Amino acid sequence: MMKCTVCGSELRALTTRLPFKIGESRIVILKNLPVLQCENCTQYVLQDDVLDKVDQMLARVDSEAELEVIQYAA
Ligand SMILES: [Zn+2]
Predict the structure, then answer these.
(1) Residue 4: its pLDDT value, please?
(2) Could you say which residues of the chain have pLDDT below 70?
(3) Cα separation of 9 and 51, whole Å?
(4) pTM (predicted TM-score)
(5) CA 21 from centre of chain
(6) How far is the CA of 20 from the centre of ligand 1 (A)?
(7) What is the distance in A from the centroid of ligand 1 to the CA of 8?
(8) Which domains does the chain have, with CATH numbers?
(9) What's the confidence (pLDDT) of residue 61?
(10) Ligand 1 ion local residues (Cβ < 5 A)
């Protein structure tokens, strides 16, 4: 079990939605994103394989919309 780097509490696996900024003015919100969330504070961790997938997904976003909501798909 991984520990929170801020407060040392245990991290819990859950899914959430998080915003990612692309360039200067665009925001992509990923839904159902698996993260490790601290039980005690607001700290969370994205695991490496999830981060890689997020990078791939953000690179494929071709809309010019300022705000886009996308379902995370592993
Ligand atoms: Zn914590």
Answers:
(1) 96
(2) none
(3) 22
(4) 0.82
(5) 11
(6) 22
(7) 6
(8) 11-71 (3.10.20)
(9) 87
(10) 4, 6-7, 9, 38, 40-41, 43
Alpha-carbon distance of 61 to 74, in angstroms, equals 16
Task: Scan for tokens 């360039």, then name that residue.
Answer: 23
Measured in Å, residue 17 CA sits from the centre of ligand 1 at 19
Residue type, 64: E
Written as one letter, the residue type at 5 is T
CA of 63 to the centre of ligand 1 (A): 36
Ligand 1: centre distance to CA 65 (Å): 34
Q: How far, in Å, from the CA of 18 to the mean position of ligand 1? A: 18
CA distance 63 to 11: 34
Number of Cβ atoms within 10 Å of the Cβ of 34: 15
Handedness of CA 43, 59, 33, 63 (dihedral sign): positive
